[in-house]
Amino acid sequence: MVVGSVNMDLVVEAERPARPGETLLGGRFSMAGGGKGANQAVAAARLGASVAMVGAVGGDRFGEIMLSALEEEGVDCRHVATRNGEATGVAMITVFPGGENSIIVAPGANATVTGGDLLEGGSLFEGADALLVQLELPPETAVEALKLGKTSRALTVFDPAPYTA
Q1: Phi/psi zone of residue 34: left (φ > 0), alpha (ψ -120 to 50 degrees), beta?
Q2: How confident is the model over 31-48, as pLDDT tens digits?
Q3: Which of 30, 58, 89, 137 could, after both became Cys, cross-link 7 (CB 3.0–4.6 A)?
Q4: Spatial separation of the C-alpha atoms in residues 5 and 133, rounded to whole Å
């Protein structure tokens, strides 16, 4: 089981970062599914695990694309809420020569995941062998998920990313 973020990654290649007030022409552009939670759920499913996810997407085209992509990968998305009026999370990623990158995340619907969403997926916790939680959700939601994981005696993995000071 994964409690985490679902994002659409918008990736552009650039020679260097733009300075404040500057517009640069970039190189190749691509879109891909992302979000730490979604990526971790897909990785586990590809390794043969039965994976359910708790999270949220916006009531928009990116949300539709992400739900479809996750389901195609074998991730159970019955507890990924669609939040009408919210945007699906987006990561704007700039990749520089040599592979280094800079990322700005607009969390969108990910920021709306609450303890109530966890309780709606409560039976998932009871049957889970393992739980993976990360911090692209509100911190209080991550803490509540970890507590539920402990109560259910699931093997719990906490990915403390992204780190914020």
Answers
A1: beta
A2: 999 999 999 999 999 999
A3: 89
A4: 9
